[in-house]
Amino acid sequence: MRIVLLGPPGSGKGTIAKIVEELYRVPAITTGDMLRDAAARGTPLGRTAKSYMDRGELVPDDLVISLIKERLSMPDSTNGFVLDGYPRSIRQAEALEEILRSTGNRLDCVLAVELDDDVIVSRLSARRSCPKCGAVYNLINKPPKRQDICDVCGSVLVQREDDRAEVIRRRLEVYREKTRLLVDWYTARGAVKTIRGDLPLGELPAVIRRTLGA
Ligand code: AP5
């Protein structure tokens, strides 16, 4: 199973990626998490990436393409993966085609998540994440059992730097300018299926299974 998840910020890509990972036993590869991890470690890539992410801009294609090439060459992704947050530009999509072609593989499905902007803004303002294990919560519909504490590992939850209102607005603009084009790009290649981003969380596994049809 080789899947790409497309969709605006906060539409639920990360949530869906985790479910696909469990259902199909393929790694969820989230470029945003990889870049945030590099930023937290203070690597040269991380420092550069942070300067773009904090403003809601895309990290330059060359950097992200190298990162994904390296990640997809790891043994755990040889039998499949779910890409969350990559590609985000036509150039990144072409690079992915090239990587897949070189290994004799192709994408099985591009899942496009659809959600209105007003829901996105209220959701992202209520999102809290665990900086240690990456678990994601929502103060409105998926709160942690103890306030501000991760259910999984007990760390103190944080709000992402780019979940501030003005940065959310910029991320939505960047999605419309650069990433939404990919829905048409992949539709022309016949690989797109859509899924609503506002389904009740408990229904998601069954809907994903039905949509992917495997
Ligand atoms: P990234 O981390 O990928 O952020 P994003 O695409 O903006 O998406 P989010 O992680 O904000 O949201 P999501 O769609 O995963 O939603 P989630 O499941 O968390 O990228 C961040 C930055 O990194 C970019 O701006 C860019 O700078 C850089 N970057 C990353 N990849 C790049 C690339 N390829 N090229 C260049 N730059 C790149 O859900 C959101 C909230 O809603 C959560 O609280 C969740 O609990 C809740 N929720 C989810 N689903 C539901 C539901 N069905 N019902 C109710 N609540 C729900």
Structural features:
214 residues, alpha/beta, Rossmann fold, two-stranded antiparallel ribbon, 9 helices, 46% helix, binds BIS(adenosine)-5'-pentaphosphate
Structure description:
This protein has 214 residues and is of the alpha/beta class. It has one domain (2-115, 167-212): Rossmann fold, CATH 3.40.50. It is built from 9 helices and 7 strands; from the N terminus they run βαβαααβαβαββααβα. It has helices at residues 13-24, 31-41, 44-53, 61-72, 90-102, 117-125, 165-179, 181-187, 204-212; strands at residues 2-6, 28-30, 81-84, 109-114, 127-129, 136-138, 192-196. Strands 2-3-1-4-7 form a 5-stranded parallel beta sheet, sandwiched between helices. β5 and β6 form a beta hairpin. α6 packs across α7 (165-179). The model has no long low-confidence stretch (mean pLDDT 94).
**Helicity level:** 40-55%
Give the name of the CATH superfamily.
P-loop containing nucleotide triphosphate hydrolases
Strand order of the largest sheet: 2-3-1-4-7
Query: What's the β-strand tally?
Result: 7
Bound molecules: BIS(adenosine)-5'-pentaphosphate
